[in-house]
Write a structure and sequence with these properties.
CATH architecture of the largest domain: 3-Layer(aba) Sandwich
Strand content: 15-25%
Strand order of the largest sheet: 7-6-8-9-10-14-15
CATH superfamily of the largest domain: Response regulator
Protein name: Putative transporter signal peptide protein
InterPro entries: BCAA_transport, Leu-bd, Peripla_BP_I
Keywords: Signal
Oligomer: single chain
Helix content: 40-55%
CATH class of the largest domain: Alpha Beta
Structural class: alpha/beta
Organism: Hylemonella gracilis ATCC 19624
Number of domains: 2
Family: Belongs to the leucine-binding protein family.
Length: about 425
């Protein structure tokens, strides 16, 4: 009996070591150089200003993913960063500079309006200058229009779009019969508008009994004091008996400041969020957020499974500072997909790599994603989590991993397979 248990333990340890080796690439100085010419990648993102923390979080994810690819050998990726300051004109200038610098793969995500402008600019550039065609890999810009009416052969999205994320949240809200009123608030640009529009539609279809007591859009990245908004939310939701909820797609400091203001105003309702699982939001709410803040994501640190745990521990080992704790599985899959496509195409020619990307099917640490050729929308599982305390003595529903050293993390309450999260598209793809 002891021998059999020992053998099982050794086998489990072997699986863990193998999984760790798959994702725990060494730091840049330890990675082996390749004789091949490095493939230049340009990250165009807001790295300064009020939403700069979100851009820096992206950069850490891309660095880690590239270290893993480079450590395997056979392909060397070279990441260069360009600060758009969150502005469309700055992003377009950065695009021109990146192309002149030799980049053929452009990555951006933290603004759907910027992404839309980049798609238009890249479409025109690729038509005008076929010898220097580029591809746009989008990791976070989730306005549904980008893979529907504005779909482009040169654009690939690796995040679930806003309607997909909202549908996942609604699967939880639909069953939460305590919620009787909802306040909708978002950032005043294409993505924020899309979130509110889809929230109205899905609430009407799935929970017509819920009263929408307020709807508001605010300037993105410019509000310093959300207390007036929070006081209005509290007053409006108090007019309806029962539990209330805020639905928001806010991200970065716009979410953190909103949540802080809600706590200061004494709002005790729930938050259904797209990005409430990090970047200061859990720490801002503290104990008041336990059981009250819901977030949807492509992956969360407390997703059950040994491979998921090994993946997360490897990231925390690479970036040990608590404030650097925001790992995106989709960004890791994006880089794995690009590496796979370049190697399959046998070149960095944008057209050849795009055709390989259309057929991409990639797995990392138990998470699988595939690219849908019809609209270039990545299809992957989604999860919904609720904020909880980190496990400790007497903590019945505690989670193993907290967020940013806050003592609070997210317990997974719903998992959707890729085919459950998938939605139809209206894309009319024009191919070269």
């Amino acid at each position: 009996m002891f021998s059999r248990v020992l053998k099982l333990a050794i086998a489990a340890l072997s699986v863990a070591v193998s999984a760790y080796a798959q994702i725990a690439a060494p730091a840049p100085q330890a990675a082996q150089a390749s004789a091949a010419q490095p493939v230049r990648i340009a990250m165009i993102e807001g790295l300064s200003g009020p939403l700069g923390n979100a851009g820096e979080a992206v950069h850490r994810n891309l660095v880690w993913a590239i270290e893993r690819v480079n450590a395997r050998g056979g392909l060397q990726l070279d990441l260069r960063r360009y600060d758009s300051k969150g502005q469309t004109e700055e992003a377009l200038a950065a695009l021109r500079a990146a192309i002149d610098d030799g980049a053929r793969f452009i990555m951006q995500g933290n603004s759907s309006s910027v992404a839309a402008a980049l798609i238009d600019a890249i479409d025109k550039h690729n038509e005008r200058d076929p010898a220097r065609r580029v591809l746009f890999l989008n990791y976070s810009a989730v306005d549904p229009i980008l893979t529907n009416e504005k779909c482009s052969f040169w654009h690939f999205r690796f995040d679930a779009h806003a309607d997909m994320r909202m549908a996942a949240l609604m699967r939880v809200l639909q069953e939460d019969r305590t919620v009787r009123s909802v306040y909708l608030i978002g950032q005043d640009y294409s993505f924020g508008q899309a979130v509110l529009r889809e929230a109205r539609r899905q609430l009407g279809a799935l929970r017509p009994d819920i009263q929408i007591v307020g709807e508001e859009l605010h300037p993105i990245g410019r509000v310093k004091d959300f207390l007036p908004y929070a006081q209005k939310i509290k007053a409006r939701t108090a007019e309806v008996r029962g539990t209330s909820a805020v639905i928001t797609g806010n991200w970065g400091n716009d979410l953190t400041l909103l949540i802080k203001a809600a706590r200061e105003a004494g709002y005790d309702g729930k938050f259904y969020t797209f990005y409430g699982n990090a970047l200061g939001a859990p720490a801002a709410l503290g104990a008041a957020g336990v059981g009250q803040v819901v977030a949807v994501a492509d992956w969360l640190p407390n997703v059950p499974g040994a491979q998921s745990e090994v993946f997360y521990r490897a990231f925390r080992e690479r970036f040990p500072r608590p404030e650097d704790d925001y790992v995106h599985m989709r960004m890791q899959l994006m880089m794995e997909t690009l590496a796979q496509a370049i190697q399959k195409a046998g070149s960095t020619d944008a057209t050849a790599v795009a055709r390989a990307l259309e057929q991409a099917d990639v797995t990392l640490s138990g998470q699988r994603g595939r690219m849908r050729a019809g609209d270039h929308q990545f299809q992957q599982p989604l999860v919904v989590g609720v904020m909880a305390r980190q496990a400790g003595d007497g903590e019945k529903d505690g989670v193993k991993f907290d967020v940013e050293g806050s003592g609070y993390g997210f317990r997974v309450i719903r998992q959707l397979k890729a085919e459950q999260a998938e939605q139809p598209t209206t894309c009319q793809m024009v191919r070269p």
